[in-house]
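Q: Sequence in, structure out?
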Amino acid sequence: QVQLVESGGGLVQAGGSLRLSCAASGSIFSINAMTWYRQAPGKQRELVAAVNSDGRTDYGIPVKGRFTISRDNAKNTVYLQMNSLKPEDTAVYYCAVIVATRFYWGQGTQVTVSS
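A: Exactly. Output:
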């Protein structure tokens, strides 16, 4: 079974920074992409950022210029550096890795940004 362990969430004030990490382990031999999604209460889950095995990145419009995704392929770990945080960034952030066409999800980590 694939296991994803997330860390780094917490409470920060507007303008602050957080760094999330997600380490994948288990029966994973090749990860096509590693991603971050977020979901605020009462809202749809949305893509935050993604990075493939070659390093290509993609970002959701609300976080462009503020968040940076990176990965360590040797450690099967993905990071999300979150700068200039806004109250609208408050959500549960979920790590997801893609193996072939299947998504494996982490448990989520709460990020709360005070106004």
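The first strand starts at residue 3 and ends at 7.
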